[in-house]
């Protein structure tokens, strides 16, 4: 029997989570819902979920707190969408998702919700957290050290997570210097591959180099995704500076030479250092 749509709740300005759940249910209604929403599956929605998570991170990176509210709402809606599809399939409900997370947080924070002492460092808490998660994986019959690292993670983030798991069982370089030596070795192999091997083999060697770079980030306590985002932003800022200087000369990048743009790039960097100083 189809549940009657609660239009009063849908149009309630302060309806909170119940309102959002009712809107989602109405969108997926096979008789009166939105054709696009009705057609979606877990697989088709998953890319949007990833995209919304990145947009949350982008708003935080830019410290656009007004935008962050909307982006968090978009990300929440992704959870609501998946939960609605799961309920339709008889798998679980949104409330069960929330209860599962609540149970997990309580279990993983015995120093807050249990009888353990809060007198511990952040590093000790991280170690305790990993011990608890390892026990959870054992309960799921995940036997290998690398079991449970999500396949759908961005490759750079997944590389770091895999390396952390391996390091916890002793499979790790002793220090950052050893990792740098490995980077030199992988770089040389990539140069050799470029000249003598197939494109597939070149890609393999390139992947090896990226994987070791991710490991160096871990050893240096650098979050590689954040570092690369910052590098992207710096490139955009400096290239826009080159374009601005070319515009002052009445030129565009396509009308300029590499040598000229490279000189302007250096000028932009000098300008930035002057501002920073």
TrEMBL record:
The species this protein was found in: Thalassovita mediterranea
Domain annotation NTP pyrophosphohydrolase MazG-like: ranges:
40-113, 179-239
**Which reaction(s) are listed as its catalytic activity?**
ATP + H2O = AMP + diphosphate + H(+)
The record, for SUPFAM superfamilies, names: all-alpha NTP pyrophosphatases
Any keyword Ribonucleoprotein? no
Q: Name one GO biological process term.
A: response to stress
User: Per the record's keyword annotation, is Hydrolase included, yes or no?
Assistant: yes
Q: Which family does it belong to?
A: Belongs to the nucleoside triphosphate pyrophosphohydrolase family.
Q: Which InterPro entries match?
A: MazG-like_dom, NTP-PPase_MazG-like_C, NTP-PPase_MazG-like_N, NTP_PyrPHydrolase_MazG
Name of this chain's protein:
Nucleoside triphosphate pyrophosphohydrolase
Q: What EC number(s) does its UniProt record assign?
A: 3.6.1.8
**Which is one GO molecular function term here?**
ATP diphosphatase activity
- Which Pfam family would be a valid example here? MazG
Q: Which gene encodes it?
A: mazG
Q: What keywords would UniProt list here?
A: Hydrolase
